[in-house]
Design a protein that fits this description.
Layout: E1 2-11, E2 14-24, E3 29-33, H1 40-47, E4 55-60, E5 63-66, H2 72-81, E6 82-85, H3 97-107, H4 113-126, H5 142-155, E7 160-164, H6 172-187, E8 192-195, H7 199-205, E9 208-213, E10 216-221, H8 223-228, H9 233-242
The chain binds adenosine-5'-diphosphate and magnesium ion.
């Protein structure tokens, strides 16, 4: 369903993504791990065109984008098909939980306000925050804010949700409720590409774990295989540090 070919990103002289190839099946849950500074966020950001790649092709469903010559219309369509959940939630501080979830539906999908708000209420039910519809981010816990961030991605009905370390900014007490919501989505077979250090989550729900180092996918496999029998020394060394 998603095919990434030769995805390359350079910052100055540094090649941060080195011709990444990756296919993702519909309903597949992929966890990306690897040392800091290795290009994990850049991979997700390039797929969503938050960063413009230097080379490569990104196909999502029937949309195929040559990233070097992507036109605005294609970029907007690619963004519509890929939703992003940020480490720091990235909610609008001056909008309520309901408005944060409805905003993209109104601006990107051009829904009417009543229709978008009705959908946002459904989403708030599903993420267990129906009573927070009119609350502003500052009055919510980190866990609640990130659930709104995930709710916003759910509302978009994107083909894939990209999660960039969604629990890394949270106080420990809120991590489980956010992972719980992500697991619920995984059981519903929402296609997801998740950068995380939560190995328990990877073990429980990932179909495949990718280990990245130096802008490349060094090794990949089902979690039970990758964690117990890593083939590459770099994978072994990384796992020794975090498991
Ligand atoms: P990770 O998410 O694996 O920690 P990143 O994708 O954030 O790694 O970063 C990979 C490399 O690219 C790092 O060396 C980082 O400093 C660099 N980098 C990321 N974003 C930028 C940017 N906007 N400008 C310059 N360098 C960047
Ligand atoms: Mg990162």
């Amino acid at each position: 369903m998603i095919a990434i070919q030769g995805l390359t990103k350079r910052f100055g002289d540094a090649t941060v993504l080195d011709a990444i190839d990756l296919n993702i099946e519909r309903g597949e849950i992929i966890v990306v791990i690897g040392p800091s500074g290795t290009g994990k966020s850049t991979l997700l950001r390039c797929v969503n065109f938050l960063e413009r790649p230097n080379a490569g092709r990104i196909q999502v469903g029937d949309l195929s984008v040559d990233t070097t010559r992507a036109r605005k219309k294609e970029i907007l369509e690619l963004r519509r098909r890929t939703a992003f959940v940020f480490q720091n939630y990235a909610l609008f501080a001056n909008k309520t939980a309901l408005e944060n979830i409805a905003e993209g539906l109104i601006v990107v999908n051009r829904w009417s306000k009543p229709k978008a708000h009705a959908r946002a209420r459904e989403i708030l039910e599903r993420i267990g925050l129906a009573d927070k519809a009119d609350a502003y981010p500052a009055s919510m816990s980190g866990g609640q804010q990130q659930r709104v961030g995930i709710g916003r991605a759910m509302a978009a009905q994107a083909e894939v949700i990209l999660f960039d370390e969604p629990t890394s900014s949270l106080d420990p007490e809120w991590v489980e409720e956010v992972l719980g919501l992500m697991k619920q989505l995984a059981y519903e077979r929402q296609t997801m590409l998740v950068v995380t250090h939560e190995m328990g989550f990877a073990r429980d729900v990932a179909d495949r774990v990718l280990f990245m180092d130096g802008g490349r996918i060094v090794e990949q496999g089902p979690p039970e295989e990758l964690f117990s029998k890593p083939k590459d020394e770099r994978t072994r060394s990384f796992l020794r540090k975090i498991l």
